[in-house]
Amino acid sequence: MASGRRNVILRLAPGERQSFLATTVLVANSEVRCAPREGHMSDLPQFLRDMIASPPRAGDGVHSWLFRVARQLHDRDEQDIFKLLTVALEDCGRRVPDREIREAVHNSKAVAWQPENGCEPVRVAQPAWPARDKARIDTIVREGFGLNELWEDSPVRFDTRVPCTETLVDALFPGNPLLCIGENAYQFVTRRRKEWFGTLSRYPLMVPTPMSALWGQTHEGTLSQHCLDNTGPRRFLVVEFDFSLKARNGVDDSEWAPLVRSWGADGISVADACAALLARLAQQAPLTIAVHSGGKSVHGWFYCNGQNEARLRGFMNYAHTIGADHATWCRCQFVRVPDGRRENGKRQRVYFFNPDVIA
């Protein structure tokens, strides 16, 4: 195993076990917090030095601040960026995991600001995802299809009083594949399906594709049971919508606030909106299962085993234009366990299930 990491094993109790799932906690040892060398930021423009000198407090958007600042620092070494951001957030009011900082640095590369011919003006890379079509989203949502209709259209329904997690996972992932299951984004384990038997209804998160190996190597060169390197070919492409009233800082309105308020005034819930949009996407790809998040939204799993990635990207581009979060395009992105249990204790109920589309 790569140095700088250690494993803490939480043991399971005895007996647990159309065309086109107890945890292993990976704990990072504390890294040396090196203060920036003298003059380290002297080459930065004043606005950026101001941003770094005044990061938000915990709960006010630390995660998004990391991304915004990191994307403007890619003219230097990634380790240099990591150290600078680490020091800046030492007193933000919460422990910011090294992994969160490194992911912000890595993920911001695609939209990094670049100097233009060595001059002061800068340009930003073209967005990787198409723009939202909010008028189109509103039209689809108001066509009358909602959560009740999604439930009524489901080919298979389960007694909602009894968790059906095991039955669902067996249908979605037949055989005995490796499944990565998480208590949260930082506590997870990859094990064979049979080793998870009888426990899955307790967990909130899973990777919607079987893993190809127990361990893989992260972008930082460390070993993990949850990364792209040990995630197999796509089996399901999951579409979720983040129609929140408030932005991540919990204070400002989100980009969706006007639509959400307008829908609410007309008796349309966020779950209804998600159901309508998933039904529209189901006209283009085989919707297999629709899972309530345990919050406000509903997520759709589309069966895509063996499909060409370019074709799937076209589908995801369209989904993005009608409100989907592009985060689930990443093959190893955690999604909600069907009929699992969210961190707040609420069940992630299944409102639609069509096993016939699974080959």
- Which CATH top level class of the largest domain fits? Alpha Beta
Report the count of strand segments.
Answer: 14
Instruction: Please tell me the total number of domains.
Output: 2
The average pLDDT is: 83
The low-pLDDT segments are 1-18, 21-39, 116-126
Main sheet makeup: 6 strands, antiparallel
Assembly form of the protein: single chain
CATH architecture of the largest domain: Alpha-Beta Complex
> What percent strand?
15-25%
Order of helices and strands: EEHHHHEEHHHEEEEEEHHEEHEE
Shape: globular
Strand arrangement, major sheet: 1-2-6-5-7-13
Percent helix, as a range, is 25-40%
Radius of gyration: 22 Å
**Structural class assignment:** alpha+beta
Amino-to-carboxy terminus distance: 37 Å
CATH topology of the largest domain: DNA primase, PRIM domain
Number of helices: 10
Structure report:
There is one protein chain. The chain is globular, with a radius of gyration of 22 Å. Helix content is 26%, strand content 17%. Helix 2 (62-70) crosses helix 4 (98-107), helix 3 (78-88) crosses helix 4 and helix 6 (147-153) crosses helix 9. Residues 1-18, 21-39 and 116-126 have low confidence and may be disordered. The protein is an alpha+beta fold and 359 residues long. The strands form four sheets. It has a six-stranded antiparallel sheet with strand order 1-2-6-5-7-13, with no helix packed on it. It has ten helices and 14 strands. It has two domains: 31-124, no CATH class; 134-357, DNA primase, PRIM domain.
Keywords:
17% strand, 10 helices, DNA primase, PRIM domain, 2 domains, six-stranded antiparallel beta sheet, four-stranded antiparallel beta sheet, 14 strands, single chain, 359 residues, alpha+beta, globular
